Amino acid sequence: MANFNLLRTIFGAGTLGLPLAVSQAGIILGPIMTISLGLLIMHMHHTLLWCLHEISRQLKIPHIPYRYGFRLALLHGPDVLHRLESSAPTIVATFMILSQLGICTVFVIFTTDSLRDIMDWQTSKPAIAALLLPYLFLEYFMKSLKIVSYISMFGNFLNLIGLTLVTYHEFLGPHGKEMVYATTDSIALYFVIGTCLFNLSSLAVVLSLDRALKHPRVLTKRYGVLNFCMLTTTIFLTLFGMLGYWSFGPMEENVLRSLPFDDDSAMLAIGLYLVAVAFAYPIQCYPAIQIILDIVRNRTETLSPKILEIIEHIVRPIFVLTSFFICYMVPIQGAFVAFVGNLCTTLIALVFPALMELCLLYPNNYGKYRFYLIKDLIILVFGLSCAILGVALCGYLIYVRVLCLHSPNDDSI
To answer: What domains are there in the chain, each with its CATH number?
Structure first.
C-alpha cells in the first residue's frame, strides 16, 4: 500500500506536465535538470526522515511531527536560530497546508480543463460547476488512509491505461523539428525547476506513510519504498518528458492538450485521467486536513472527539471550495504549478530539511572536510533563490497569462 500511495501520488497529473518542462528547458538541458532535481528531492526526503527519526530516538518517542521536529532541530543549532523556535511549527504547518492546497488546486484545474475539452465547452466555468459536487462527495466519504489506498490502486490502473494511450500518440506522429537544446532564459529555468519540484516531490504523502506504517524502516532502506518509487518515477518521467517534446514540440500546458481531439483514443485518455486525478484528490487533501486537526487538537486540548469531528466536517468542504475558488481565479495549470513548486516545495522539501540537518550536526559532526556543512549550505542557497526569484518570475508569468485570459479578444476563460 505504501508503494501504491507513493507511486499514485507522483504518477498523477504531474506526469503530463514533464513534456512542458522539457520543452521550456530544451531537449538536452531538460532531462539533465529533471534527473538532477529528482535525485536531490529523493536525498532530501531521506534527510528529513533521518532528522525526524534522530529526534524521536533522542526523545525516546515513536514519532514526532515535521513541524515540531523542525522546532527541536533549531534548538540544537546556533543561538541565532533559537529565536525562530517558537514560530517554527507555525511556519512549517503554513507551508505544508499551502503546498497541499496548491496541489489540490492543480488537480481541479487539470480535471476542469479535461472535462472542458471532452465536452467542447467554450469556457471552464461549466466544468468547474459540474465537478464541484463530485469533489465534495469524494472528500466527504474518503476520510481514512486505508480507503484512499484502495482507491489509489484503482487510480493506478487508470493511469497505466492513460499513459499507454498517450505514449502511443507520442510515437504515432513524432515532431522532431526546431527543438531547443538548452535555454538560458531565467524565467524558463525557474519555471522548469518549480515544475519538476512540484511533480517529483511527494513530501506530505511520505510523512503520512512514515507515520502510518508499522515498520517505517521500509521507507528508507536501500531497496525500500522511497528509493524504488523515486528512482523509477524520475527515470520514467524524464523519458516521458523527452518523448513528449520530441513528438509534439513546444506546448503551453500539459501534453493531453496537444493530443488530437478528433481521435477516440485521445478522448479516452483524457477521460481516464480525469477520473484518475479526481480519485487522487482526497489523498492530497488528507495530510493538510490532518495538520489542521492536529493544530486544533494541540491548542485546545479540552475539545471532545465529537467537537473535533464537527470541525473536520467543516474543514473538508472549506478546503475543497478554496481550491475551486483559486481554480476559478487562476485557471492556468503550467504557470501555477511552477509557482507552487517554487513557493512551497523548495521550502518544505529542500530548505527546512537542510537547515534541520545543519542544526542536528552542529557544531562538530559535519564529517570529513565538513562535507555536510558545505552540502546543506549549497542546498539552502539554491532553495532560497528559488523561493525568492522563482516565485517572483512565475508570479509575473501568471499575471501576464491572467491578463491575456481576461482580454476582450479572448473568449477561452
So the answer is: 2-405 (1.20.1740.10)
